[in-house]
Model the fold of this input.
Amino acid sequence: MNSLTFLDKEITGTEKKQIDFKAGDTVKVYTKFKEGDKTRVQQFEGVVIGISGGGINTNFTIRKISYGVGVERIFPLYSPSIEKIDVVQRMKVKRAKLYYLRGLSSKSSRLKRMKETELIEQEAGEQTAETSK
Done:
């Protein structure tokens, strides 16, 4: 058994992070940085354009526009440098990978926001799926 399989089996149950966001959602990722002897937290806010991998190898890509330039960053979900992930907005998308946002200008790349009723229905569906397991 290789070490990756061992780690994947070790992170099960309550220790395993639940992905409570999907492609299209706007999230804030708080990451720890060490500068000299001080540690600080920096946030990166943007749209999730894709989630890849599985198990301990799960990564997610976030895209934001900073001073007119598109910036993408890939975060490992199980990285110890990630302090927390907050969902700012939930968007309604029909694809799992939103790579088409790379070629669009800022106004044309706007996504539709989920209505409150859709959010309630989605959360109710997730809760019933969890209880049936």
The chain has one domain: 3-132. The chain has a mean pLDDT of 79. DSSP finds two helices and seven strands in the chain. The longest helix spans residues 116-132.
